[in-house]
Amino acid sequence: MKVLIIEDEKELAKSIVQYLSEENYLCEVASSFKEALHKITMFDYDCILLDITLPDGSGLKILEELARQHKQDGVIIISAKNSVDDKIEGLQLGADDYLTKPFHLSELTARIYSLIRRKRFNNTNTIKQGELEIDLLAKTVAIHGESIALTRKEFDLLIYFIGNRNRVLSKSTLAEHLSGDLADMLDNHDFVYAHVKNLKKKLGDAGGGQYIKTVYGTGYRWEG
């Protein structure tokens, strides 16, 4: 899962990145309004952590821009401001949650997970499709009740496919999801093919259905 941290306090942003990375989130950071605006325009995120007080603009304008672009990224405002008016305005502009600084990183992580679960997976901790069962909290996958071992990238890819079921996902979209803005610096996206191939093989070898379909010349689609 991919998270954008819009925060100008460098030490706080660094702490959040370190903590979330250990929880297998792919993190990117924007420390200014201008940088944040560029990132939300160019990329999609499962969750955006948004400080509404930025050195060159208001984070509330980021919410307005997300709405203008019809983006579906989840947003949690993280702010030192604790006024009711700020919370109401942020939520009315499209934020999903509001967390006042200072906060425990464990609570932040729990809120991120809850937001993604609610928006992507109908507020459930367990995803079931036929013989396939995924525990989002434990990050485990089982087929016919038998656990299968997936790498971090393979698990993330599986969740992304299921969260976008029946949609055609291009290789560039998958590359961006797996590698963030580093994808723009890669000569090709062959690593996407390798991850998809390995995931399909592991699911198939364990007796899973052929849910991942190749859409030639375009990308891949999870059917279900």
Automatic annotation (TrEMBL):
Molecular functions (GO terms): phosphorelay response regulator activity; transcription cis-regulatory region binding
Stored Pfam families: Response_reg, Trans_reg_C
Residue ranges of every copy of the OmpR/PhoB-type domain listed in the record: 124-224
UniProt-listed Gene3D superfamilies: 3.40.50.2300, 6.10.250.690, Winged helix-like DNA-binding domain superfamily/Winged helix DNA-binding domain
SMART domains per UniProt: REC, Trans_reg_C
GO CC terms: cytosol; protein-DNA complex
DNA repair listed as a keyword: no
Top-rank taxon, per record: Bacteria
Keywords: DNA-binding, Phosphoprotein, Transcription, Transcription regulation, Two-component regulatory system
All residue ranges annotated as the Response regulatory domain in the record: 2-116
DNA-binding region as annotated in the record: 124-224
Keyword presence, Phosphoprotein: yes
In-chain residues carrying the UniProt-annotated modification 4-aspartylphosphate: 51
GO BP terms: regulation of DNA-templated transcription
Transmembrane segments: none
Protein name: DNA-binding response OmpR family regulator
Organism the protein comes from: Sphingobacterium yanglingense
